[in-house]
Write a structure and sequence with these properties.
Low-confidence stretches: none
Number of domains: 1
Distance between the termini: 52 Å
Structural class: mainly alpha
Mean pLDDT: 95
Number of helices: 10
Radius of gyration: 17 Å
Length: 203
């Protein structure tokens, strides 16, 4: 029975996370976001192609998916299992965004959705990682560099702010997944072809 409850939590959170906000926003304007810019359905590419209002809307929608999943989607029946269900829901929402079933399991990089999950579960750790993101972005002007640096720092931020061992494990997994999803960005950075924020990618 416990397995069925966890499965229900995971499925509902995955389906919520799988809603492709960026793709829907772009399609509403007659654009297939997968075929322009970086080809990513996330907020950064939407911002670059469709402008600030659309990018901010997608950013908030993607973050909200993670927050709602981690905070409200749970089939836990005992106090001891609430945190475990929240962790399962949060990870499922991130995986839903990264590998959405509606787009042949090709989604975004999960940074905004991860931020929503972290806001629900470890707000102080998120604040620490966000501070690192802001400073790195200000110095480099690369969203990818800021995201990679913040993802690497995230578990340390949770540790420094007194997060539980379970949250340390969760944020280590979230950070590692974010790094994996940025592998193409890392390659472009090494090749010197990664675009700085605000500069449209050559078609």
């Amino acid at each position: 029975m416990d397995f069925l409850r966890y499965a229900a939590t995971a499925l509902c959170a995955y389906l919520l996370g799988s809603i492709p906000s960026g793709y829907i926003m772009a399609r509403a304007r007659g654009v297939d976001i997968r075929k322009v810019g970086s080809g990513n359905i996330g907020a950064t590419n939407v911002f670059r192609i469709l402008g600030r209002p659309a990018g901010i809307t997608v950013l908030l929608c993607d973050a909200l998916k993670g927050f709602i999943a981690a905070r409200f989607i749970s089939f836990a029946t005992t106090p001891d299992s609430v945190e475990y269900h929240a962790i399962v829901a949060g990870m499922s929402a991130i995986l839903g965004h990264n590998y959405t079933c509606w787009l042949r399991f090709k989604g975004g990089k999960g940074i905004a959705t991860s931020a929503g999950v972290l806001l629900a579960l470890v707000p102080l750790g998120l604040a620490a990682a966000l501070s690192v993101w802001i400073v790195t972005f200000y110095l480099s002007k690369y969203v990818s560099v800021a995201s990679i640096t913040a993802a690497t720092f995230l578990p340390f931020g949770v540790w420094l702010t007194g997060g539980s061992k379970r949250m340390l494990v969760l944020t280590s997994v979230v950070g590692a997944l974010a790094l994996y999803k940025h592998k193409t960005n890392i390659q472009r950075l090494m090749n010197g072809t990664e675009n700085k924020f605000g500069r449209k990618r050559n078609e």
